[in-house]
Each structure stands twice: as structure tokens, then as C-alpha cells.
Amino acid sequence: MCLYIVGIGPGKPEGMTLEAEAVLENCEIIVGYTVYTGLLKDRFPEKEYYSTPMKQEIERCRWALRQAADGKETALVCSGDAGIYGLAGLVFQLSGEMEESPEIRVIPGVTAASSGGALLGAPLGHDFAVISLSDLLTDPAVIADRLRFAAKGDMVLCLYNPSSKKRADHLKAACDIILAYRSPETVCGYAKNIGREGEVTGILSLRELREFQTDMFTTVYIGSSSTLRVGDHMVTPRGYRMVRPGPCETKAGTLQENRAAVSGRVIIFGGTTEGRLLYEHCREQGIPVSVYVATAYGCRILESRDGPESGAENKRNEKAEQERIHTGRLTRSEMEAAMRRERAFLVLDATHPFALEATENIRAACGTLGIPCHRIRRELPEPDDTPETLCFDSIEGVVSYLKNREGNILVTTGSKDLFLYTALPDYQKRLYVRVLPDVETIAACMGLGITGRHLSAMQGPFSEEMNIGYIREFSIRWVVTKQSGAVGGFYEKQNAARRTGAALLVIRKKNKKETGIGLKEAIEILEELK
To answer: Model pTM greater than 0.85?
Structure first.
């Protein structure tokens, strides 16, 4: 005999599949949660029923397995689909404990995500995540992480079990997590008592949803950045809401048209000098702008440019809405999500010339979304052709060269790859490191054993005289730098090395023929938006 695990859909008989109805018609026993068996008794009055309340799922599944093993055609019913927050998984687990398990077949059903979505319109038209807020079987911290990652990925969220009498604040807490990644005006919806008496739906904003009262029989939908309200319906288009010019096709008037159509903002990537200047220009011109920087220190540098705040609270709120600064390295998918969320109509890549992976990800994300993108090119001079100037393609090459050579080393290549220098003999004695004054960066250096006089945390670029003083103070024989251009203080380091007799070891940029526009051209593009 067989145990059928049957998804009976949202509740009303019309919501069952033909296969589910046929199985229930032919079985002898129907097993299920009291509420679900109650929905079936009028339709199948001649069947034998076995019901248990909440929190007795294991007993219910074992009873059904025993009945099927004893030769009775048995159906274990679940609302929606039995494999989605249903009992199918538990039944298979318990069957493994039996000496002789009956055959088990899962009959799919229409789950609340799709049936409730149909009532609202088409909220699940693109990628989405289904998350239960019930913490009876899942650690609350795990639920919070899943909400955070789904929200960060800009997926529509479908929330099961949003709240109950004992968990009245769960939906509010979930909204607080999501509001860190979504606008308060994000389109949301709910469907209550789907397919049953008292069925009701509604559309509201994420801000309103935070204060909304729900229960265990409500399914909640939180839209992505592309979700729309179309009349009384919630719609997430498959594709993009408008056709935008490609990354290299910006024409006169296009940015103005995009800005008016999208009501979005400029996105700047990079905590470089160029990124800071572009950010300041947007602020001065009143252009909505979001800046994405890799480190907390880069964020503080931008925030320090704001100056003392004056005016009332509403002025601070207006500023926060007009200018946003985000911290942390992003993957390509995270960049795409940010561009959608911010409704970007122009992206400026002002990342460091050596941040090749970031530039590639930005270009790819803009290409996928059809957003105009400009790489801000920095002129990188060729080092002087002298016996004391040596060029390398990587830090590994520099380390390999220095392994068999004596003398103190000044490293100005940043903290990201500093661990590579630990391959040098006596590196803790020979290495003098200059990094940004960031707590995490300093901690990382100290973790490598670089402390005291060997560690300098200062904001550059530095003058030629400061470099000379540093080289002489610490008896530096080798100065390691990147081919970072005038903005990165390259000339000052080169001249200081030449005047003190230190050797200059230069790490060259791999892609020397980088395309893009200069800082002046980028500012001219922003001038179009005034």
C-alpha cells in the first residue's frame, strides 16, 4: 500500500489539483491538522479521519505511516504544497526509522505564495525568496540572516507565518531589517485566509506594512526595487521597467530624459580623490547621489566633508534622502541590486586604478541593466628610466626580488595584500608600512606583527619632503609603490627616492590601455543634470 502526502491547495475545493482530488477520492483514511481535515469533511464525508492539533506533527506522520504499512490506502494532507513548509520532508525522515516503510508519493498542490500572489496580481513575476518568520523550528538569528541576504539581493520576499499572538512583533522586526536595503515606499501586499471564508487582500507601502497587524493565516509580499503598483494590483515585471541606452551610448539629452523617467539618482563607486570630488559636485548641484566605498575609512572621509549641520530636523532628513553613502565591497549581483534599488540613471566608476575586479563588475552590472556607465580614467605616468627604478607586474614579484636583498623597506601599497610581504626573512624588522588610519586596517597590520615604529597610519598623499624625512628617519633602502598617478602621490615618492638614493620598486597597472573619461569630462556630464 501507499502513503500519499497531498497538498490540498489554499483551502477551497477549486484550489485542489485534479490529481489531489482523485487520490483523496480513492483513499480510505485522511490524516491531517484539525483545520485542514475540517475543510475536507463536507467533500469526502465517507472517509475515516484522524486529526491532531498543532505541535503534534511527528505523532500524526507516524500514525499515517503505520496505517499505510498495515495495508490501508492513506492520505496525509497539508495546506498548499506538502513539500513547501509541509510534512513531506518529515515523513521521509521518519520512514527511515521503519523496518519496512510503505511506498510514499507526494502529490503537489498550489502553495500560498502562488495562490495569494494571483489574488494580488503578479508580485512574483521575477526572482523571489520564500521565508517563514516562525521561530518554532528555526533559530531567529538564522531567519534574520535570510531576510538580510534576500533583501540585499533585491528579490521579492514572500513571508509565511508573519506573526501570531505570541509573535506579534515578528513582522515589524522583519520590516526593520529589510528597510536597511529597501525604500520605505516599496510596494508590498498581503493575502489573508486565501481560498477560505474571510479572504481579503491589500496593497500598502513597506512603511505601512511595518505597523500592519497580521496572523498565521496571512501571506505577506514585499516587493523588489522594480515592483510596481498597477491600480489595485502588485506587479513585478519580468525584465526592466524601461529601455535605457547602453553603457557607451550616452547622448545629449539622454541623461535628462532618464532622470525624469526614473526619478532616481547618480551612483558613484570609489573612495578615491576622484570619487570624493564627484560626490561633492553632486551635493553642490543638488543632484541625488549615492556613493559606494569599500572601507569605513572611505565613508568617514566623505562624511567629514559635510561640515557642521545647521537647520532643523527636516533639513537633515532631506539631506539624508538626497545623499547616501554605503560601505562595503560588493559582488556583481549586489551591484545590480543596488542599481535597481537606487533606480540609477547614471553610474560613475571612480574606483582605484588597480581595482580591476571592481571595475569589471561595475561594467558588467551596468551592461546587464542598460545603465550609462563611465570609467573615470586616471593618467598613470611611466616611472623614470633610471637604474634605481625597477618595475614589476605584481606584489609577488616585488617580494621575490627582495627575498635575497638586505635593507629596510617602505611599503605604500595598502593593506589588502600586505600579508604577501610576510614571506620576506625578518620582515617584522625590515618592513615599514604606511596605511590609512582605519581601525580595521591597523588591527590587520598588528595581526601580522607590524607594530610600533614600523606602522604609520596616515592619510595621504604626502609631500616630497615628508617622504624624504620618512626615508631618512627609518634608513629606507627600498620604496615600494603602485603606479598610482599624480593623485596617488607617485611623483612625490619617485622624487624622494631619487634624492635620497633609495631604490623605487613600482608595481605597474596590468591594463595600461584603460578606456574612460577624465574627471573634467565627468563633471561636464553632471553639469547636464543641473
So the answer is: no
The SS3 assignment for 446 reads helix
| CB distance 199 to 112 below 8 Å | no
Q: How far apart are CA 340 and CA 38, in angstroms?
A: 45
Tens digits of per-residue pLDDT, 73-121? 999 999 999 999 899 999 999 999 898 999 999 999 999 999 999 999 9
Of residues 162, 165, 126, 117, the one with CA closest to residue 143: 162
SS (H, E, C) 307-318: CCCCCCHHHHHH
User: Between helices 140-152 and 170-178, what is the axis angle to 10°?
Assistant: 40
How far is the CA of 67 from the CAs of 76, 98, 328, in angstroms? 11, 13, 56
**Measured on CA atoms in the order 76, 78, 84, 90, is the torsion positive or negative?**
negative
* Run of H or E residues at 39: helix 34-40
Indicate if the pLDDT at residue 488 is higher than 90: no
Give 30's strand partners: 49, 75
User: How many percent of the chain have pLDDT more than 90?
Assistant: 48
Fill in the DSSP letter of residue 118.
H
E strand or H helix that includes residue 276: helix 273-285
Nearest Cα neighbor of 64 from 19, 27, 116 is 27
Residue in 441, 483, 474, 444 with CA at minimum distance from that of residue 458: 441
pLDDT in tens, 139-173: 999 999 999 999 988 899 999 999 887 788 899 99
Asked if 240 and 369 count as a contact pair (C-beta separation under 8 A), the reply is yes
Among the residues of 247-311, which ranges form H helices? 254-262, 273-285, 296-304
Q: Please state, in angstroms and rounded to a whole number, the distance separating the CA atoms of residues 35 and 471.
A: 80
User: 267 by DSSP, 3-state: which?
Assistant: strand
Residues 6+ apart with CB under 8 A from 282: 266, 268, 288, 289, 323, 526
User: In whole angstroms, what separates CA 222 from the centre of its chain?
Assistant: 16
